[in-house]
C-alpha cells in the first residue's frame, strides 16, 4: 500500500487491518461521527468488517484506500484518511476522504492528513484534479476541504445522496506550495 508508513509532523498512516475493528466500532457507533454517513446502525459489527475488507481490497487492486491514521508519539488511532477512486457522475476521480473519532476533532488532524494525501497525489502525478465528496450540511468536512485548497465544484447525487463536490487542480496546488 503506497501510503504505508507515510508521515506528517504529528501523524502516521498505515494500512487498516482487522485489528482496527474496535476503534472503528467506536466510530460507527457514535451518532456525532456518523451523522453525515449512511451507516447500517442495525448491524454495526458486520458493517465494520465490511468496511475493513473494502479497504483491504482497494489496497490489493489499486494500491490505495482509506488508511488508519495514528498519533506519531503514541500510536493512538485517530481515524482514517486516504485516497480513494470514486465515480462522480460516471467519471473516475481521485478523492481524499477523512473520518476522525470525535475526541480528536478540533486539533487540525483531519486537515493535516488531507493535505498529506493531496500532496502525495500531486507529487506522484496520480491526477490533475483531486476531490472531496461532502454532505452539504457537514460544516467540519467542508472546512477541511477548503483548508486543503479545494473550492466548491458542483452539487450532484452520489450513492443516492445529494452531495457537494470540492476540488483542487494540480496547477492551483502548485501555486500553494511555491
**Beta-strand proportion:** 25-35%
Apparent shape: globular
Overall pLDDT level = 94
Poorly predicted ranges? none
Q: How are helices and strands ordered from N to C? A: EHHEEEHEHEEH
CA distance, first residue to last residue: 28 Å
Task: Offer a few descriptive terms.
5 helices; alpha+beta; 7-stranded mixed beta sheet
Please characterize this protein's 3D structure.
Helix content is 33%, strand content 31%. Strands 1-2-3-4-5-7-6 form a seven-stranded mixed sheet, with helices on both faces. β4, α3 (109-123) and β5 form a beta-alpha-beta unit. It is of the alpha+beta class and 178 residues long.
Layout of strands and helices, then pairs:
Layout (H helix, E strand, L loop, with lengths): L10 E4 L6 H8 L15 H19 L3 E6 L5 E12 L2 E10 L8 H15 L5 E6 L4 H9 L3 E8 L2 E9 H8 L1
Parallel strand pairs: 4-5
Antiparallel strand pairs: 1-2, 2-3, 3-4, 5-7, 6-7
Could you write a compact summary of the structure shown?
The chain is of the alpha+beta class. 33% of the residues lie in helices and 31% in strands.
